[in-house]
Design brief:
Distance between the termini of chain B: 35 Å
Radius of gyration of chain B: 24 Å
Largest sheet of chain B: none
Order of helices and strands of chain B: HHHHHHHHHHHH
Largest sheet of chain A: none
Helix content of chain B: over 70%
Number of strands of chain A: 0
Number of strands of chain B: 0
Structural class of chain A: mainly alpha
Helix content of chain A: over 70%
CATH architecture of chain B: Orthogonal Bundle
Strand content of chain B: under 5%
Number of domains of chain B: 1
Strand content of chain A: under 5%
Largest interface: A-B, 49 and 38 residues
Shape of chain A: flat
Shape of chain B: elongated
Oligomer: heterodimer
Chain lengths: 346, 295
């Protein structure tokens, strides 16, 4: 029920996004031939072509029919997986470009998330356990620094250090692993700052819980309590942060891709926007929007499955939970579900 | 009645400090925030006075003076590929960035006040439609919509301002709507209603001042975010039109020489990073000054 409604809303949102993008493109000055000149894809062809050839060209790209029909054709194509050729990269279809370029962006994003988790989780735990020590203040200060530093500025700082000053890594290009290091770290800087703060607060919160006191009272050693109880409980909310973080990174790579010259989907999107490559622009916008929404939905689902309280409330039938809500006893299932967890924790 | 009143007056120690001055005091106790504020004020002054303090005009070419290193006579930060003075261009860039950021933030405030108040106060169908609109805007990931807008409208200052406004009003209008909904049931609004305030008077005289805290916090993060987006768009080649300088354009132009002439981007990046950090500290300070009060 809940999932069905979410998906229906997602589809409506995607349609609205596609319509808005389409309308914007229609407002842009220039007809098909003019766009060709700007875009440079089939520039030679379009400029030299006679009126007859031009209309043939327009027909090939489906640009010879009224705008709203083009939109419908494109949307049908988007659903059936046939969005037609790009204006700019005439030998490739939009699907081929996405299939080729998205793995590059996604790879960068995954690399950045892995770096962020590996660096931030230990730092956050250390900051929480050694609260008010140099570890804590140091980590939090660095977190503030990183938080205000978006990925392209972080990337530029890294390039100035590792390419200009130390001459260790290339500032531009996409040939081998050496080209991936700087962009990945640049993307990871802000997530590290955010995660470290999040982990620290989560661990601190859990350390104050009663089950920790109980475990201590039973004679548990600090290390055991941390490893078995506190860490397990404080890592769970991370799922909610990392999911959207990945989606944000996969779509947020446009600046980093532009600076480092990486042929990811963000770069194709930017080019398509600048050159009004309509099919590619529509295709990549819809793809990014769908990715973001699916990730958010998945995160909500995973979170629901991980959280025993939510799981318990899902087990209730709709009428039961309605009655419970009306009677004001929503706390019932929650506390019931908590009991096994706290027992397990001890 | 009168005696009771005088008694109460006598019980009051002196005129209580206003809420704003207490917040200001709390802000001043945060050393990083004060440092940030000093940097931000200096940057703003430099931006406003750029035409008078910059040694050169931003478009003045220097034939024969291309690629001068930092510390060259007459060009403290050196010159760029066309022999233009980097310090001057940087000062003018700050001017561009601040102007765009502030105007976009103001426009976004106006738009989100209109939407947020209408949705929050009227509720019902209007609310549903407006919120559905914000849903769609949220579905555009990150900077995609801003990139699209500038690409369609062409490179110009107003295209960038519009793109940033459209990108930032959604979050703020939701925030305002939530504030209004929350306040509808608060006592001071009840009191206003009891005293005869109705309709929009109630909203503007009672609810809006109450919502200013979160709005101020959001703006103190919104302006640097706009500055970042402006230079980000310029890095993508979608910023203000040349020869108008922007930090992003300077970075974009100089990047290909980053290994041989790092000073072309080192100065813009260093100054910009410092200003962004300063804004973050100020923003954190403002947020803390308000948060503690609410708890």
């Amino acid at each position: 029920m809940f999932i069905g409604r979410r998906i229906a809303r997602m589809i409506l949102c995607l349609i609205a996004v596609s319509l808005l993008t389409w309308i914007l493109l229609q407002l842009a000055p220039g007809d098909f031939a003019g766009i060709q000149e700007v875009g440079g894809g089939t520039v030679g062809l379009a400029q030299q072509a006679s009126a007859e050839q031009q209309s043939g060209l327009a027909a090939r790209y489906g640009a010879d029919i009224p705008g709203w029909q083009q939109y419908l054709t494109f949307m049908v194509g988007a659903v059936t997986g046939d969005m037609g050729p790009s204006y700019r990269y005439t030998h490739m279809t939009v699907e081929q470009i996405i299939a080729h370029a998205f793995p590059i962006s996604a790879g960068l994003a995954i690399g950045a998330v892995v770096i962020a988790v590996v660096v931030a989780v230990p730092l956050g735990i250390l900051a929480a356990v050694r609260r008010k020590s140099i570890w804590d203040t140091g980590t939090m200060f660095v977190a503030t620094l990183g938080h205000g530093l978006p990925n392209y500025l972080a990337g530029l700082v890294l390039v100035l250090i590792f390419s200009s000053a130390l001459n260790l890594l290339p500032p531009f290009g996409w040939r081998g692993p050496e080209n991936m290091i700087l962009p990945m770290i640049a993307l990871a800087v802000s997530p590290i700052a955010m995660l470290a703060r999040y982990v620290r607060n989560s661990v601190l919160e859990n350390l104050r819980e009663e089950y920790v006191v109980a475990a201590k009272a039973k004679g548990g050693r600090f290390r055991t309590i941390m490893a078995r109880h506190v860490l397990r409980n404080s890592m769970m909310p991370l799922v909610t942060v990392i999911g959207p973080m990945f989606a944000g990174l996969a779509t947020g790579t446009i600046f980093v891709e532009s600076i480092f010259g990486i042929p990811g989907l963000g770069r194709y999107f930017t080019e398509a926007a600048a050159q009004r490559d309509m099919p590619l622009l529509m295709g990549s916008t819809l793809f990014f929007a769908a990715l973001l929404m699916v990730m958010n939905l998945l995160v909500d689902l995973v979170y629901a499955l991980l959280d025993p309280r939510v799981r318990a409330s899902l087990n209730l039938t709709a009428s039961e939970s309605d009655v419970a809500a009306k009677a004001g006893i929503t706390a019932g299932p929650v506390s019931r579900a908590q009991t096994p967890q706290s027992e397990a924790a001890l | 009645m009168t005696t009771v009143e005088t008694n109460e007056d006598a019980a009051l120690p002196s005129r209580p400090r206003s809420e704003w001055s207490r917040r200001w005091g709390r802000f001043l106790r945060n050393r990083l925030a004060v440092l940030g504020l000093v940097i931000v004020v200096v940057a703003c002054l430099a931006a406003v006075t750029a035409p008078w303090i910059a040694p050169y005009h931003y478009a003045t070419l220097g034939p024969g003076d291309e690629f001068l290193r930092t510390g060259s006579p007459g060009h403290p930060m050196g010159t760029d590929i066309l022999g233009r003075d980097i310090l001057s261009r940087l000062l003018y860039s700050l001017r561009t960035a601040l102007f765009i950021a502030i105007v976009a933030e103001l426009l976004s405030l106006i738009l989100s006040f209109a939407v947020g108040l209408l949705a929050g106060y009227k509720g019902g169908k209007i609310d549903q439609w407006l919120m559905a609109g914000t849903d769609v805007m949220f579905a555009f990931p990150g900077y995609l919509f801003a990139v699209l807008l500038v690409a369609v409208l062409g490179r110009s200052t107003w295209a960038v301002i519009l793109a940033l406004t459209v990108g930032s009003w959604v979050g703020l209008s939701r925030l305002l709507r939530a504030q209004i909904l929350k306040m509808k049931s608060l006592e001071f609004v009840e009191a206003g209603r009891a005293m005869g305030a109705t309709g929009w008077t109630l909203v503007i005289r009672y609810m809006v001042p109450g919502a200013m805290g979160p709005v101020l916090v959001s703006s103190s993060f919104g302006i640097p975010a706009n500055m970042l987006a402006e230079s980000g768009l310029a890095i993508l080649g979608l910023g203000v039109a040349p020869p108008m300088p922007s930090v992003g354009t300077m970075i974009n132009d100089g990047y290909q020489f980053v290994q041989s002439y790092p000073h072309l981007i080192a100065w813009p990046v260093a100054v910009f990073v410092l200003i962004m950090l300063a804004f973050t500290w100020v923003g954190d300070g403002v947020r803390d000054a308000f948060d503690v009060d609410e708890s």
